[in-house]
Amino acid sequence: MSAFTAAKTGVNTDHSAAAPADSAAGVFTTRYSRGLEIATVIVVAGWQVAGAGLLLLSRFTLYPFPGIEVAAWSVQAGVIAVGAVLLLQRRLSGQVAWGLVAVDVAAGIAAVAACPPDGMLSANWAWGATVWVGVLLLLHRPLRELVILIAIAALITLCALAVVGDLHQRSVSGYISTLYASVSIQLAVVIAARALGSAAKRAAEAAQTTARTATRRSIAEAVHADRQARYRAVRERNEPLLNGLADGTLHADDPEARQRCAVQAARLRRMFAESDDVPNRLLHELHACADIADRRGVAVGWATAGMVPQIPEAARRELTEAAIAVLATTLTRARITVISDQAGVAVSVVCDSPAEPRPMVADGQITITTQLADDGLWMEARWQAR
Amino acid sequence: MAGPVTAAIVDDHPVILDGVRAWLAADALHRVELIHAALTIEDLEAGPGIRADVLIVDLELKRGMAVEQIARLAADGHRIVVFSGHNKPELINQVIDAGASSYLTKDEGPDHLVEAIVAAASDVPYVTPSHAGEILADTRANRPKLAPQEAAALRLWFQGMSKASVARRLGIAEDTVKAYINRARVKYANVGRPAPSKAALLTRALEDGLITLAEVRDEYVSAAAKPLPTNNAHRATE
Description:
Chain A is of the alpha+beta class and 386 residues long. Helices cover 68% and strands 11% of the residues of chain A.
């Protein structure tokens, strides 16, 4: 067991880089987008308190119905609170967002309607506030939805101006400059946030691609080096065997010589099979297990059926350990097979082991079945795909 | 059967020919007699070997994969056991589809070659472990549907158990294990391109009671959506 671990450590270290690289990019984008959401909540809540709230307080005595203003302000503050919680919990669907926008707009209409006729611009805190609440609610919606809300809010105030008969040159220019000032800030914030978001996404993707390429390269290098080393080992073992058979020092009818030849032939076949197989960590590790067994003189056959998926590391280790445990008690021959289908992956060893292996405890990831018969031991370790 | 089964081999590696002779000689019952060894399929067709009961063909000859030649020989009514260093599922698919009776990888030679030849000569299925693996891994849309017991028997056989051990594991008789494996194999005789060897395999399975006519209609034909083939209806036209 320790020999296996020691032999494969170099390769495993390189292999394990692949999964974290993928999830690191995911974590990066998630964390970035979470930061953006928190910042938006702070900006919008801050505006509601420091912008709209202070304007409301400073003009408090001018409102004919201050109760309506306070109620509208409170409703919007409530919408911000609910929207912020849903946004941060990632439960803010488009439907819910627009439901909250409707409440927000209704409060805005009430507040604008309750403005003093001569303070339709100067005391109108609700116009800007209504849109800011929408900035929060529509953060992950297409930009045009926010533009629609901006238009609705602008229209409400325009209608109010018309209703109180205050549509003269001075008030219209005031209206336009207010519209320009508030909308430019709101759109600037949203567009900048989106630009940063897509830049972050691109950066994360680039980091991911780089990590993947590096991982692939290190896997390829490790596999190549490993294979080179094994080819060297095979050559070193083939030569004396072939020389011995050629010069008569080894006899084909000598059982020991035959076993050495069988081991060598099995090793060559596995090596060919490994270069045929798609690179897969489980197969690679099982090939390594087989190599250790054949160094003890066991002829290890090899076959796979189906495409082997990448398996979670813990389950993969248990499958490999199960094979190692059985191979350790094998005397002369073993066959390792891997069957993959939609149900999962089954690693099996059939060998001439005289005894059941030591009890194998699998902690829930895999199930192990063994059967000892006159003609040998059968073991199957099965990993169930979800 | 009167006398041994006659066989001829096509292989361009002398060491393989020697190996095959040794394996045939090792059979205590001497069930197979090798009457011709040819280096190419053309040599085989020109010599006495073409009249052998079973042809043993190495899939990988110097001129490439012999899939099409195997299909042609099968269409001419020959029984073929394919022998290959390859263990690629798609290759096994192709040669079985072409009408080969059995498929062996070279390391399966000592244990399975004689059995496969004897079975092929009498149109009885013989599935090697490598072929079982291919059937298990088959994901093609038109693949025959296996019964759960058939898949279970194929699985254990592929993993390397003896049929006696498979029987013990599944709690059934050894003959039942053979029947399950053979039933799975016979289903493949009714899909893909037609060949006399496939029709013969189906006919023999019906005669032996391995499958029933009702099953052929309901289950076997559903995979291929074509009528039960008969011996003379399957001369390939191309």
